[in-house]
Structures are given as C-alpha cells and as structure tokens.
Amino acid sequence: MNDFQHGSSQRIGESLQNAGINVEFASVQGNREAYFRAAFDLGADSFEVYIYADEIGLMANGKHWRIWERPDFDGPDELLADFMENLSELTNDQPSND
User: Fold this and answer.
1) Is 57 within 8 Å of 65 (Cβ atoms)?
2) How many domains does the chain have?
3) Is residue 97 part of a domain?
4) pTM for the whole thing?
5) Mean pLDDT of the chain
C-alpha cells in the first residue's frame, strides 16, 4: 500500500467516525493490485469505499459505482478533497436518529 492509500483511509475513517459511523478498512490483495475496503450503512443504504493506488471508488447499494481517478484531478490531494466533500454531503444528508 502506498502513502495515498494509507493517508486516504485514515482521513476517510476519521470523517466517518466524526459523523458517528464506525468503519474499519481492510487490506485486500487482489490478483493485480492491493487496495483498502470498508463498508458502512447510512439509513437504508449500504456503501463500500475502495481505495486503490491512485483512485477512490464508492459503491452504493451494491450497484451504483462512482470513481475518483487521478487523471481527473491536479493531484492526489485534490482527488481526496473532492471525495471528502462528496462523502460529507452524503453523511450530512442522512436523517437524524434522534
């Protein structure tokens, strides 16, 4: 795993924890690449985050895939910042359990 993967998993995990969502990233060694994966639920929806060497993917309900790829951004920091913004919007849109 590279610095991008480690740093991203830490930042994403902290952000989700701050939103009251506990996740644990697991290291996965595929045939061609290694990545981190974490799953969590928000209301009735389930999500999976995948952190690859130079991209982050988000799967919603096992069928809706969105990817943040390095070529679409000026650098890895911008990629992570955009993902974090989208993640924040996603977690803030959830109804309160109070």
Assistant:
1) yes
2) 1
3) no
4) 0.90
5) 93
